[in-house]
Design brief:
Blueprint: E1 2-9, H1 15-30, E2 35-42, E3 49-56, H2 59-70, H3 73-78, E4 82-88, H4 96-113, E5 120-125, E6 128-134, H5 137-140, H6 147-159, E7 168-173, H7 177-186, E8 190-195, E9 219-222, H8 226-240
Parallel strand pairs: 7-8, 8-9
Antiparallel strand pairs: 1-3, 1-4, 2-3, 5-6, 5-7
């Protein structure tokens, strides 16, 4: 994952034009393939400054973003503005787990767009998505319609089998006890999640599986794009306060 953090300073004479162009710039950037997080907000201590935070899946996505911006209205407007940026991760390879988690994050955004808690999940088997979903308990009036359950149901239907051996479930936030139980029954091989859920997470935050004499265990991987997954949740709840 490539991250950039820093500040851009906007001359007062360009402030109005910059604010107008910024809306389109943010929307276009967030829609780019490989964009995981993008935020440009006023600097609370510098009246001419904007704080910039962004994350892209890998170097190729980051380079494509830089190329687009250089030839955009935003790029032409701000090309001479002062910038202080720190970039990290340019030499880091992109893993398969990160690629799938990025797709789960897009599903989390779909949940947020309809007012649901931003959690996205998908089920992968032999390199293909066989099920996907996002949180929908409110819109479906269904307390079981968590992202993981929606994805598992779709995957089971696609396979014509309620067991999903060898399948990997990716989810942006640590699953709850209900969803962990469903994963056990589905016989998934791996569960990969992004950020921990300290209140309701039932894999590592409050592990419950080992308390029962079940006949299936799956591999657990945590922290894949965890910072970005956690930011989705923080942003969602901060807007609701």
């Amino acid at each position: 994952m490539v991250t950039l953090e820093g500040k851009i300073r906007v001359p007062q004479a360009q402030r109005e034009a910059t604010n107008a162009a910024l809306v389109e710039h943010v929307a276009l950037t967030r829609a780019e393939d490989g964009c995981l997080f993008f935020e440009v907000v006023p600097d609370p201590v510098d009246p001419e400054g904007f704080r910039v935070r962004e994350a892209f899946l890998g170097p190729d996505a980051f380079a494509a973003h830089q190329s687009r911006v250089a030839n955009s209205a935003w790029g032409r407007l701000t090309k001479d503005f002062q910038r202080q940026y720190e970039v990290s991760g340019l030499d880091d390879p992109v893993s398969d787990d990160e690629t799938w988690m990025a797709k789960a994050l897009a599903l989390a955004d779909a949940a947020s767009a309809v007012g649901e808690v931003p959690v996205g999940a998908l089920v992968v088997l032999d390199g293909e998505i066989i099920g996907q979903g996002f949180n929908q308990p409110i819109t479906r009036c269904d307390p079981t319609a968590h992202a993981e359950i929606v994805a598992l149901r779709q995957a089971a239907q696609a396979q014509s089998n309620y067991r999903l051996p060898r399948a990997v479930l990716y989810v942006t936030i640590e699953p709850c006890l209900m969803c962990v139980g469903a994963m056990v029954h589905a016989r998934v091989a791996r569960v990969v999640f992004g950020a921990r859920e300290p209140k309701a997470g039932a894999l590592l935050s409050h592990p419950k599986v080992d308390d029962h004499s079940i006949n299936h265990r799956f591999e657990i991987v945590e922290g894949v794009l965890g910072d970005v997954c956690g930011q989705r949740m923080s942003q969602f709840f901060s807007k609701r306060r």
